[in-house]
Amino acid sequence: MRQFEREDEEDAERLGKAHGRLLSCKTNEEYRATLSEIDYIKAHRSETETKILEHLDQLDETQPIVEQLRGEVEEHIKALERDVNSRQSEFNGLEGSLSDAEARRQKIAAEVESPWIKAYQKVRGNRPGDVVVRVEKESCLGCHMSLPPQFVQEVRHNSRLTNCPHCLRILYFVEPASADDAARS
Ligand SMILES: [Zn+2]
Fold first, then answer.
1. CB under 5 Å of ion ligand 1: residues
2. What is the model's pTM?
3. Is 89 part of a structural domain of the chain?
């Protein structure tokens, strides 16, 4: 389009010059040659004008397609924005649950005596699985290593915090059911 417009500007300039030369022609030949140049330029300008009009028609035809595509892109952007917003509110909800859980954890931790928390965290940092485990049949149920009978008696009293000498888990003891219950089970 710009190329045609440039060509037409050049033609207009050439046409002006040719008209000027017409007045100063010395011979009939020169005059006729200038006239035919003027005709040629006029014909060329007419062709250029036709091409420009054709391009304008094409622009008119493509305009609705461009509008449709623009509409589709805008819809797409809106859908993405809705998606971002819904994810943001989902994230906000999760963040809220997390801070609720954190507050509950701190409340519970505050209710437990501090040395116990320290002992718990020390073991949790070192070992996978449960931190507080039962002693059964003179063995630690965390690492399944057997414990000396004297040590088991200490745990049995449940009077102080006792760690397994092998895996360091915190131990506790539950008295087995009575002899009758044991016989039945
Ligand atoms: Zn153990």
1. 140, 142-143, 164, 166-167
2. 0.38
3. no
